[in-house]
Amino acid sequence: MTFNVLLQNLSNGISLGFLFALIAIGYSMVYGILNLINFAHGDIFMMATFFVYYAIALFSIPWGLAFFVGILLTVLLGISVDRFAYRPLRNSPRISCLCSAIGMSFLLENFAIVVFGGRPKSFFRPEIFTKMYTIFNVRIHSVSIVTPVIAILALLVLTYIIYRTKIGLAMRAISRDFDTANLMGININKTIAFTFAIGSGLAAIGAILWALRYPQIYPYMGIFPGWRAFAAAIMGGIGSIRGATLGGFLVGLLSIMIVVFLPALAGYKDAFIFIGVIIVLLFKPKGLFGEE
Amino acid sequence: MKKNILYFLLSISIILLVIVFIIIANRNFDSYVIRILNLCAIYIILGVSLNLINGFTGQFSLGHAGFMAIGAYLSALLYMSPELKEVNFFIVPLIMPFRVIQLPFFVAVIFAGLFSALIGFLIGIPCLRLKGDYLAIVTFGFSEIIRVIFNNLQNVTNGPIGLKGLPTYTNLWWSFGIAILTVLVVKNLINSSYGRALKSIRENETAAEAMGVNLFFHKSLAFAIGAFFAGLGGALLGSFIMTIDPNTFSFLLTFQLIVIVIVGGLGSITGTVISAIIITVLMETLRSVEAPMNIFGLHVPGIPGMRMLVFAILLMTVVLFFKKGLMGKNEWSWDGLLKKYFPDNER
Fold first, then answer.
1. Is residue B70 in some structural domain?
2. Which of A68, B1, B89, B270 lies 20 to 30 angstroms, CA to CA, from B190?
3. What is the ipTM of this complex?
4. Which of A34, A106, A111, A227 should we substitute to test contact with B (largest number of B Cβ atoms within 10 Å)?
């Protein structure tokens, strides 16, 4: 293997890692606040691509605006998922919340199959996102350049919101101690809805970048990116933004590098990711960056 | 003493009733109804075994499909005839010991169950140190790993093509026989001292440990027994649907079982049995939703996927509005029944 090939794969792995990081943060934030695995997150991710697809195909909105509309609709979807599936269960045992999350995930998937149809659709790709650039003999897809830029911007905004604003303070307070935060006069429901909004918005950004990279959208497309991002969130320490980002990177690089270095084991890619998660959990039960 | 003998006789009579029912069913019902009955029994086996882990021990496991896959594949490899294996493995030949042996169905199923229990025990060693959601994640990861391995291990599992044309050994006798066995074993287990230990782990792990309950042993016990019956159920299911491939045992299957357990009530065998029957029948009757139909002269074409949508909505309704499921933690018992109808008769 030459150095160029390595660079090529590295660039792919890094941009994939940023995508996983964007999705993983959604899982991580919801878990940090509600102690709930939001199984529906991968399906919210899937719905985002369909929103954009229909905005372009049915209403022929220009793509920039369509992306924006898609993100907005996904944010609304995220908030309503919280409102209808999780909020009634705030005081129930965790296991019912988990079941509600699994149910929501299947509800969204089957809704998509019934309404959008099960056949894969091809996502509209603007001219800019189909170009290839050659830098030092390394061919880089323009999406691979755009992804890190947008992801870093989104992460900066997120960090600002969480550490510099009042609602971010409320979110951190709730994740530290739910009941005390409530007693201190923090509006729990509003803050949680806001968390879902941010998580879904990041998932929508990730979904659009994902669809630009792999332009085939179908109702089950959220499952695998969702689970890998979830694995990433756990590996990094669920509840921690830094951890989710690092975990996303690890999973992205791992899934590309296994195919590069061990092509014979390429089929076992997902198994390796989950074995990685299990090993991390065994040695650090709270993940790499989790609070002890 | 008299009471116990009475209850024993009543239980025996229920089993006899089931036997009579099977004889009548075999003679009179058409093959479609018999298929549904078989499925009911298989889902009872799977649901009750999952309830032992999730409901009685309180360990949220999402790995049941993995154990079923192990059971289905191992039993199929043992009971298929060598000729059939040769037809199936046309790309990569099967590895040696499996290529030539053929065992009777019963022995194959028992082997499948035992191997699945062994795997359940081995998986339990590292996993059971984790609690709650982390356990759910790791068991899910385990069932995905099994699926990925089965998709790739061509010389044992035939890869994504799967095994086709399995002989149909599953009939009402096998499925209901093993279902009754499962219910009896799990019922006696949870009414024993082991069962009380399992329930104490569910209620409060720290307190249970302080009272001298060996957490590791009891959790592994629940996992191994659950995995054993999952293996049996998987083996029956494989021989019943005649075609198995790794994607048969996806998360969707685990999800259906979790629905059964939740609807019946976490921690109630009776509830699981009832809900397994209701949901299996419901899944079949809901097929009519997908068929084209006429509503007041308006022709509505069939909508694929509608069945699962209705199913998901039903599940959400149960989870949100009937939080305890059909039975909660209650069991149906002779005691309760007799007290209800003969309240003043102190036995």
1. yes
2. B1
3. 0.80
4. A106
